[in-house]
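Supplementary Note 3. Input sequence used for the single-chain structure prediction.
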Amino acid sequence: MSNRNNLVKKNVALSVVFKGLSVALSLLLLPLTVNYLSKVEYGIWVTLLGVLSWVNYLDMGIGPGLRNKLTEAVSRKDETAFKSYLSSGIVMIGGICFLMFVVVIGGLQFVDLNKILNTTEVSSDLLYNASLYTAVIVLILFFLSIMDQVYNSVQKTSIPGFVNVIQSTLMLGMVYFLTYFDYKNMLYFIIAFGISAILSKLGMGLCFFFKHKHLLPDHKLIDVNRMKSLVSLSAKFLLLNATCIFIYSSADFMITLRLGPDYVRDFDIVFKVFYFVSTLYFFMFNPLWSAYTDAYVKRDYAWIRKTLKKTTLLIIPVTLAVIVIGINIRLITRIWTGIDLEIPNALPIAIGLYTIGLYWLANWNYFINGSGQVNLEIIVSVIASIGMAGLSWTLMPIMGPAGMALSMAIIVFLFGTAMCIQTIRILNKKP
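The predicted structure, written as discrete structure tokens, is reproduced below.
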């Protein structure tokens, strides 16, 4: 137990340090981005990136399933199983990437992007190229995200935070270069994003395996039975991940569809301010997922209960941080971006409630995902995603982007309460 606690504390501490560096770099990067891209281009960029990043959720659940299987192999010190699951997972995710690439190439030939993105201010050719470049970048990053499951399984969950620092540093340098020499083109910005993200992930992955050669995947260990085992567990995460798109990642897209891309920028910037809070607590929860899996496999239920009690109480400082940010949101965004954004009073209140609700949900979800007991979560997530779509579509014409945020807040609070009840039920059945 003490070793597990020490690993969690170490990863949380390092993650907070790396997140602090990422926040500092983001403070510098966002003003450059806002001034580099027009208001409509910014809306289109974050919408494209958000929609195409849904691929990460539509991986047939292989990512979360692979994480659990790799963590179990580490807990049992079964190196062969680890390498076999990793090798098999690489083949499966690589196949999905190829199929998605074919779908994207084919789909872009038949869709009217100007109509879908609700704009006439950007040419169809530019939208096509922007969509294509972003799709290729996202698919490469999706494949490289296998490394995140490796880091998580060996409880080195702080490494992705360090990767983000490298990526943000590279991105900041390239955007500054583009701005300084006045190379203003949305495609250049997208390419800069791709180079910084791919190089940082690929470089860190190579460094990891250079130090851990005994964990290198081996094509000889690709096992159809392991694939079936992954699919069996991953199938439970598939529907869960697909429905979570609406709950966590559809805001920019829904706003673009309902109101237009020019409404996205101000919403996205305010959302990013509050998201600094949620990323800090997600860095705490991320190492807990693997720790919960390890404890569940070893039947250490006392540690699970004790940890959940501690994390539940942390909702108090999260709430206080949200209140402070909400009160000062206009000052924060003005200092950060140098622009007086049009922020209705309801928007920071709704996003603040969502940030608190997301903590409430994550507090229970990370244990449930780590234990693999996700059946009820799947059912609730389907209901929640339908409710999210309907409620936001109804509220946005009335409240603007704040309607999107309020619907998200309501859904995550209800979702989190259901997961709290499920957690209590699971643990009450254990000695």
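Residues 87 and 217 are 5 Å apart (CA to CA). The chain has 18 helices and no strands.
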